[in-house]
């Protein structure tokens, strides 16, 4: 009956609670409360197990339809719940009736045909089977069929699982926290309740269950009736139970009656060891016998100990200075700022680990807080700090400065501005050149204007505009008084008109004589034409060259000159001959971008500087002599000593490299003294001087003596820094050139000035 | 075929070993490895290239020489440590099984390592050991003062106290103490033993603050080593002095806080107990030797003055009579032998006079820390008594007539306590006398007096001055004083010059309404004006100066006057500046020709010198300010 009641309460939570209580009062159920709704299928099984032979021919069909029905019911669950309940109630009534009438085993239940409210078709409804008390399913079945899943999955749902027929098992009503608390206060039995996991309901534990729990907690046998101290039953021993016959007929061996030989040997071994004193009851005592301290450094074994060198002795702690005194002179006491500075400093950065303090008497001196800490730090230093032997140099730093002769002894060299050639419009002056006699200076600026100046006066005597592109180079011929101008795509030859007529005539003849005997035109070679559009007074002829020539270099004899246009790739370098109006490119292919070229002053050698290397070629034998590696990133300038045996190379990475060509391909000295890129370097043709011009706006003059003796290195002495140019837009002095005879130099800068420096 | 070179098999990769690698190789725990390193004196090394030494990795690691580690592998201590590990397991098992008898017998056999061979290895000669006992003495003196707790066993502290006392006894007996310095950290002592300067620091007698981040396992390992080292060193020192080591300790005296008095120095052969200082001995009369010794004691400072030594003894002998030595003198018999001993030890510094306080009987008042001052005084030959609160065993009571000096650290001498024939001095007097090597006048050090500054005896003033460091006036004497005065004069001179200029300026602009204001503004000269004056030809500078003057609200006339004055001044100083500039330029040009390495070294040295100079200048400035202030207070 209890199951039936429980079944009836499925639909209504409140009702079921009451029923549960009834169950308990009955005292029948031990374990989960059975809330199963019996199923037609189950009843089938039961019946078959019960041995009923009669089959249900309609079982398949009926079950199918019912399943369908059920599915539909789930689909439209919410709508028809009420009706379902009604149906259930009806069923129950029916069953009750049947129960009254007959035992369930004896009568198979016939399905009842009911018209489904949803589909409208008739459906079979089997009466529910009441699993009687002794049937398997009635006690074992778990009413909640969700399986072994955490119950909290259903936390947000109104139900806590499904019964066997797939209907939802609703969540039992649960009071709030206050109710729970009140129940603990009011209900004296609340301590013995537990939550049933499958139903979520509070279950009152029975005294039997409580006892069981208590036994388990005490680690006792859960069975209360179990007696662990039962008297043993002697099955095989005791009087009257002796076996009359032996198990084997073998006679007892002799060894069973005599003492063991091996045991005896083992014992005797120990006995001997004890007698000899090898075994003592408490281990060896030798260690303790040694005196604690003795004469360790006796003279005998001093030599023996020196197998391995002892570790480096630790450096001693620095001895305290006056400032550490408890009563130091007053000037050692820190001011407030010093104190603050010290406190703000990281403890590791502090020069001293204490602040000087003054105490008027010794009794006022407190304990030093960091004493233990300092000892500990010292110990950490002793075993954690790497030890390195360092030689302390105790020399005067001035002794490191090389002893050089005083600049006063090395005069003459330029020391001051003598003449300033002001260019109108402050155009950057790119290039400069002295005439062969040192009387004129030619400059070329960025607006394509070339000017000639009377050197000692500073007067502009001639001016010519050659296009609007910057003038790449201006070079005065070393033999006749005319000069070359390199502008974009062309080289112009100018015989300035202010010269004496005799000089002009000589130069004119020299330059134009080749027009009379024109050589066979070579394709791709620069063309020598007499100046058709006369760009300026004195403009004689034009040589068209590919690219944008940036440098011109005259051979010492004044017949050949070379031009470099770095942007013209393979046609970058051309060697021109004035007397024959002939040009040729000496290189078929050039490795790297050619920056600069130069002729050797005495030998038929040719220097070509790319970005990183300087190559020396023999023009007669047409072969590479040597490649110099200055170790610079970008060569900006190059100058050869008049003797031809030395070379200086300036670079944009602020360095100057001096090569002794006799010595090798590595520089003899690399100097770095300018703060910005070097723009130009130049050897003086007549004096042992050289100058370097830099973007930092200075010109540095060096005195460089080259000795004839091969064993003596050149002596380089910096003698003067010439300041006077302004730095404009990161550009300072752009070029420097020496007077052919005097120790004067002229420099041109981005500030639109050319300055003549004289001694 | 050439041998195949494999990576990490030669060079730095093989020569060095990281700590982790070493620990793995030795199969010890990190703690045991640390212990081994401390005991054996192993230290990490810095390889030339960390990357090469660490097989290409740049992860931070500390490196050891692989040979050092290979050497450690044969260490008997390492074997004992392993045995101890096994023992600890056995013991833990016995205890876990509650087998108490086994545990007890096991415990009796606990493997213990000895450090004798380690000491011998680390210090092959005795001198090496003496050279390295500074740290040992510091730590032992510190631990002698720490309270016992769960980390530090009372036996350890007891042993430390004992070692410290034995060391002090030795130093007192051989009169080896040379310098004492009262610092804010504690008291530094320097003794000369076997020709080596041994310096140690003793904290002031207060409870020590023990920070939480101090690892006592490390400290105790060091202490273990240091105790052994000190034990052997003291054994050798004592036996060389023909004394029994360890000196017997009188437990009852020790319990009554007799300090070093609880120990008895015993001659080895004689086997006679010769307490260093007992009232019994005072009954003996003055021997001729004593007098001579006293005389010697007084000679030494006189000789430092540079006077002829032959002339001194007579005059001093007369003084001796006046000195309060006529009481039955009680120079210790042991000391008689010591006189020669001292000579043989040959104190190097001429200023050191081991019997400086020999004529004196000094009474230590109760507010003075007795152990330190008793040690200092007795090292220099004084006989010392102390207040009963400072411990038992004082040979003199306060009422003793023979007491010549009382070391007292009170604001004033209590009423009725003053006795005639006694000098009352503050503790600093004792230390200053020791450091100066002569008896200083007591008046300056009387209780309540403002003490003269206490200077470190470890600073070689001459050397400091040579290096361009600061030497305080008190240490430098007259020379430094003169310097200071000169500087003062220079400063004053500059001030005067300034004033003159101001006057000039004030006179020049007659049209100005407030000449004083103009003078004030001129005091802080505008930079553009100075620049314009330095280069009068530059129009742009002039223009800038004019604009500046305009902005500053200076009238044109005033500006003109200022400019003129500035130009005049600039021209006056120009030749000098020119010369200076030229010199500088020459120097900077010469630097062009230096190699990179030398230039770097040069810059570094220059920086160091500059820093030292700054430091000196700062101190000099402070001193000048203090002097000025003092003068103002006097006026």
Write structural notes for this entry.
- The complex is a heterodimer of chains A (759) and B (635).
- Chain A is of the alpha+beta class.
- Among the domains of chain A are: 2-175, no CATH class; 408-758, Methylamine Dehydrogenase, Chain H, CATH 2.130.10.10.
- Chain A is built from 13 helices and 35 strands.
- In chain A, the strands form ten sheets. In chain A, strands 12-13-14-16-15 form a five-stranded antiparallel beta sheet, covered by helices on one side. In chain A, strands 7-35-34-33 form a four-stranded antiparallel beta sheet, with no helix packed on it.
- The longest helix of chain A is centred in the first third of the chain and has 25 residues, at 77-101.
- Chain B folds into four domains: 13-74, Multidrug-efflux Transporter Regulator, Chain: A, Domain 2, CATH 1.10.1660; 116-274, no CATH class; 279-304 and 312-445, BRCT domain (Rossmann fold, 3-Layer(aba) Sandwich), CATH 3.40.50.10190; 476-634, no CATH class.
- Helices cover 54% and strands 7% of the residues of chain B.
- Chain B has 26 helices and eleven strands.
- In chain B, the strands form four sheets. Chain B has a four-stranded parallel beta sheet with strand order 9-8-10-11.
- In chain B, helix 3 (30-40) packs parallel to helix 12 (216-240) and helix 11 (154-174) runs parallel beside helix 17.
- The longest helix of chain B has 39 residues, at 596-634.
- Chains A and B meet through helix 12 and strand 32 of A and helix 3, helix 8, helix 9, helix 10 and helix 12 of B.
């Amino acid at each position: 009956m209890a199951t039936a009641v429980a079944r009836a309460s499925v639909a209504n939570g409140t009702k079921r609670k009451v029923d549960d209580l009834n169950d308990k009062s009955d005292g029948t159920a031990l374990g989960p409360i059975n809330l199963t709704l019996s199923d037609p299928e189950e009843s089938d099984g039961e019946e078959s197990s019960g041995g009923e032979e009669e089959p249900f021919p309609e079982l398949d069909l009926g079950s199918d339809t019912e399943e369908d029905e059920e599915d539909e019911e789930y689909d439209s669950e919410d709508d028809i719940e009420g009706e379902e309940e009604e149906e259930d109630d009806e069923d129950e009534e029916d069953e009750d009736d049947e129960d009254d009438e007959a035992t369930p085993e004896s009568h198979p239940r016939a399905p009842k045909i009911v018209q489904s409210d949803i589909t409208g078709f008739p459906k079979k409804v089997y009466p529910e089977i009441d699993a009687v008390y002794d049937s398997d399913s009635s006690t074992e079945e778990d009413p909640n069929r969700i399986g072994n899943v955490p119950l909290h999955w259903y936390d947000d749902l109104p139900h806590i699982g499904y019964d066997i027929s797939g209907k939802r098992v609703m969540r039992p009503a649960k009071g709030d926290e206050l109710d729970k608390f009140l129940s603990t206060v009011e209900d004296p039995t609340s301590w013995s309740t537990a939550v049933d996991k499958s139903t979520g309901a509070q279950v009152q534990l029975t005294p039997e269950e409580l006892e069981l729990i208590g036994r388990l907690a005490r680690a006792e046998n859960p069975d209360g009736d179990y007696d662990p101290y039962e008297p043993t039953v002697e099955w095989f021993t005791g009087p009257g139970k002796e076996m009359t016959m032996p198990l084997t007929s073998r006679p007892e061996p002799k060894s069973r009656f005599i003492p063991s030989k091996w045991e005896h040997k083992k014992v005797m071994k120990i006995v001997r060891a004890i007698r000899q004193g090898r075994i003592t009851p408490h281990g060896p005592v030798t260690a303790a016998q040694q005196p604690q301290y003795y004469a360790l450094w006796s003279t005998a074994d001093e030599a023996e100990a020196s197998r391995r060198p002892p570790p480096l002795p630790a450096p001693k702690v620095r001895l305290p200075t006056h400032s550490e005194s408890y009563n130091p002179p007053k000037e050692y006491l820190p001011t407030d700022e010093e104190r603050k500075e010290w406190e703000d400093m990281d403890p590791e950065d502090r020069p001293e680990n204490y602040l000087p303090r003054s105490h008027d008497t010794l009794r006022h001196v407190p304990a030093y807080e960091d004493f233990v800490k300092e000892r500990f730090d010292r110990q950490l230093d002793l075993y954690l700090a790497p030890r390195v032997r360092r030689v302390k140099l105790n020399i005067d730093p001035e002794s490191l400065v090389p002893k050089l002769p005083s600049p006063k002894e090395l005069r003459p060299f330029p020391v001051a501005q003598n003449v300033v050639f002001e260019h109108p419009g402050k155009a950057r002056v790119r290039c400069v050149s002295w005439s062969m006699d040192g009387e004129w200076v030619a400059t070329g600026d960025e607006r394509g204007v070339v000017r000639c100046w009377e050197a000692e006066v500073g007067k502009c005597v001639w001016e010519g505009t050659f296009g609007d592109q910057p003038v790449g180079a201006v070079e005065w011929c070393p033999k006749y008084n005319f000069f070359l101008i390199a502008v974009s795509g062309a080289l112009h030859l100018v015989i300035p008109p202010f010269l004496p007529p005799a000089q002009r005539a000589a130069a004119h003849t020299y330059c134009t004589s080749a027009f009379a005997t024109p050589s066979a035109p070579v394709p791709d070679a620069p063309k020598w034409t007499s100046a058709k559009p006369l760009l300026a007074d004195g403009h004689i002829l034009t040589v068209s060259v590919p690219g944008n020539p940036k440098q011109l270099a005259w051979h010492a004899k004044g017949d050949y000159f070379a031009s470099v246009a770095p942007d013209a790739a393979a046609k970058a370098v051309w060697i021109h001959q004035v007397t024959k109006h002939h040009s040729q490119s000496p290189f078929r292919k050039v490795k790297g971008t050619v920056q600069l070229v130069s002729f050797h002053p005495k030998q038929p050698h040719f220097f070509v500087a790319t970005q990183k290397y300087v190559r020396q070629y023999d023009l007669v034998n047409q072969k590479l002599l040597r490649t110099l590696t200055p170790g610079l990133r970008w060569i900006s300038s190059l100058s050869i000593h008049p003797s031809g045996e030395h070379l200086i190379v300036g670079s944009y990475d602020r360095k100057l490299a001096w090569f002794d060509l006799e010595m090798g391909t590595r520089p003899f000295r690399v100097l770095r003294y300018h703060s910005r890129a070097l723009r130009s370097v130049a050897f003086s043709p007549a004096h042992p001087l050289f100058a370097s011009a830099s973007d930092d706006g200075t010109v540095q003059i060096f005195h460089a003596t080259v000795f004839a003796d091969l064993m003596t290195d050149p002596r380089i002495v910096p003698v003067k820094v010439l300041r006077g140019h302004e730095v404009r837009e990161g550009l300072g002095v752009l070029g420097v050139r020496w007077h052919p005879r005097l120790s004067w130099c002229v420099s041109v800068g981005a500030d639109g000035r050319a300055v003549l420096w004289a001694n | 075929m050439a041998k195949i070179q494999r990576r990490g098999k030669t060079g730095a990769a093989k020569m060095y070993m990281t700590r982790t690698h070493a620990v793995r190789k030795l199969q010890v725990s990190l703690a045991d490895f640390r212990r081994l390193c401390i005991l054996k004196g192993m230290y990490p090394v810095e390889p030339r290239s960390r990357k090469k030494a660490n097989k290409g990795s740049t992860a931070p690691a500390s490196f050891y020489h692989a040979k050092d580690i290979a050497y450690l592998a044969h260490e008997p201590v390492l074997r004992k440590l392993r045995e101890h590990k096994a023992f600890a397991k056995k013991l833990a098992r016995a205890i876990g099984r509650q087998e108490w008898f086994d545990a007890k017998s096991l415990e009796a056999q606990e493997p213990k390592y000895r450090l004798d061979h380690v000491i011998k290895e680390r210090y092959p000669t005795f001198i090496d050991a003496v050279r390295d006992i500074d740290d040992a003495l510091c730590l032992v003196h510190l631990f002698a003062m720490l309270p016992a707790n769960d980390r530090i066993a009372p036996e350890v502290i007891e042993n430390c106290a004992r070692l410290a006392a034995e060391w002090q006894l030795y130093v007192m007996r051989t009169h080896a103490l040379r310098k004492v310095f009262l610092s804010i950290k504690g008291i530094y002592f320097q003794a000369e033993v076997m020709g080596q300067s041994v310096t140690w620091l003793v904290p002031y007698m207060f409870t020590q603050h023990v920070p939480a981040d101090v690892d006592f396992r490390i400290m105790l390992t060091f202490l273990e080593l240091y105790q052994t080292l000190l034990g052997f060193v003291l054994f050798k020192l004592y036996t060389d002095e023909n004394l029994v080591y360890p000196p017997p300790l009188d437990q009852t005296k020790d319990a009554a806080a007799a300090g070093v008095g609880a120990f008895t120095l015993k001659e080895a052969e004689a086997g006679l107990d010769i307490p260093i200082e007992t009232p019994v001995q005072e009954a003996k009369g003055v021997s001729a030797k004593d007098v001579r010794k006293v005389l010697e004691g007084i000679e030494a400072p006189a000789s430092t003055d540079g006077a002829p030594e032959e002339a001194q003894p007579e005059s001093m002998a007369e003084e001796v009579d006046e000195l309060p030595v006529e009481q039955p003198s009680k120079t210790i018999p042991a000391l008689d032998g010591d006189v020669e001993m001292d000579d043989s030890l040959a104190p190097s510094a001429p200023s050191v006079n081991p019997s400086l306080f020999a004529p004196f009987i000094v009474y230590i008042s109760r507010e003075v820390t007795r152990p330190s001052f008793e040690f200092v005084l007795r090292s220099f030959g004084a006989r010392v008594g102390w207040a009963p609160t400072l411990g038992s065993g004082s040979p003199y009571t306060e009422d003793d007539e023979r007491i010549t000096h009382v070391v007292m650290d009170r604001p004033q001498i209590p009423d009725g306590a003053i006795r005639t024939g006694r000098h009352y001095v503050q503790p600093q007097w004792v230390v200053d006398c020791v450091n100066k090597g002569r008896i200083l006048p007591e008046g300056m050090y009387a209780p309540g007096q403002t003490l003269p500054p206490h200077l470190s005896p470890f600073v070689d003033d001459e050397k400091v001055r040579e290096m361009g460091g600061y030497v305080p006036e008190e240490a430098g004497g007259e020379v430094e004083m003169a310097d200071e005065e000169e500087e003062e004069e220079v400063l004053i001179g500059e001030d005067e010059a300034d004033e003159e200029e101001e006057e000039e300026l004030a006179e020049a602009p007659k049209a100005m309404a407030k000449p004083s204001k103009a003078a004030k503004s001129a005091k802080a000269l505008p930079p553009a004006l100075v620049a314009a004056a330095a280069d009068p030809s530059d129009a742009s500078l002039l223009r800038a100066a004019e604009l500046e003057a305009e902005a500053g609200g200076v009238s044109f006339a005033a500006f003109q006057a200022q400019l003129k004055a500035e130009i005049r001044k600039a021209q006056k100083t120009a030749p000098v500046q020119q010369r200076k500039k030229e010199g500088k330029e020459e120097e900077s040009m010469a630097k062009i020709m230096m190699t990179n390495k030398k230039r770097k070294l040069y810059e570094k040295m220059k920086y160091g010198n500059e820093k030292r100079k700054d430091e000196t200048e700062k101190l000099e400035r402070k001193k000048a300010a203090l002097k000025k202030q003092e003068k103002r207070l006097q006026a």
